[in-house]
Task: structure prediction
Amino acid sequence: MTATPTTATPTTPTPATPAQTTPALTTTTDRHLLSVADLGRAGIDDIMTLADSFKEVSERRIPKVPALRGKTVATLFFEASTRTRLSFETAAKRLSADVMSFSASSSSLEKGESLRDTVETIDAMGVDAMIVRHKSSGVPMRITSWTSASVINAGDGQHEHPTQALLDCYTIREALAARSGSGSRAGAGAEPPAGFAGLRIGIIGDIKHSRVARSNVLAFSALGADVVLVAPRTLLPPSLEGWPVEATAELDSVLPDLDVVYLLRIQAERAGQVLLPDLDEYHVRFGLTAERARRLSPQALVMHPGPMIRGVEIAPEAADLPSSLVTRQVRNGVFIRSAVLFHLLGASGPPAADAADDEKSGNA
Ligand code: ASP
Result:
């Protein structure tokens, strides 16, 4: 028997609830995932529900389903990545897709080939999805006009990183569900909300250069959370007009009320200039120090998209707290990316023979 995902129905995307701050770069289509705006609230909920099925698959003796057998997924990474590439490749393999892996540093780009020729070369080999990471905003959208494959944005410049936002929403939802399931509400402080509505999420650090911040603001606010950005003026975008957020430079004034403390790395590779006089001073003013961690509400969740720079945005003691969800985020990334791949490529479900083969392999 095949997994639940083979019978699930992909959703029709709806526009995102929060205002778009970079409208020129987003599209709404059911074939690509370029922005959280391609999904909207209903789409985010549907992907999280699909991810539950893949979480269940991961607990099986053989954590694999034939849903994408015969499909080919290519990862095109023009910028460094550890977890996102491995996570997408693991997700594709768990769906039985064939995986092609392209790395800019060992490609003909090094010999002067253009981005378009590189994409068209990979397209000519016959791929069903291209998962693209690039240092420039808008590249995944540009690529949609050079290929008939589905394009998934795995992080473009400082624009968006939609699967990171989806896995973050999923991780928060899972933590809230575990808490209400266990009935453990002990401890001081106000009870946090049971769902996203009214949840107070602080995103702290280099908002200006962070694609994670942009996607997460869209996703968290679409689900009904209140988002507060905490950063020095130099690490905020020049204008927050249209962003459904509050902003402050006073971490200590908002910290006790946060249900989720979401820390960001300083994106030195994107800054192009020195924005901070001193990283030690940054740690003292904006880092989750061990002392601040002690002042968090007992129910507060600590998150980071990785890579974490311990001692800058987060103290080692805070990174290793039981309330830190960082490794959960990584684990859930595989379920979310499986759901996204299935949502975009698996609409017709596997051929009947696949289900029979699956039963023979003991994967019922
Ligand atoms: N991994 C995330 C990204 O690719 C966050 C980071 O690099 O700081 O944007």
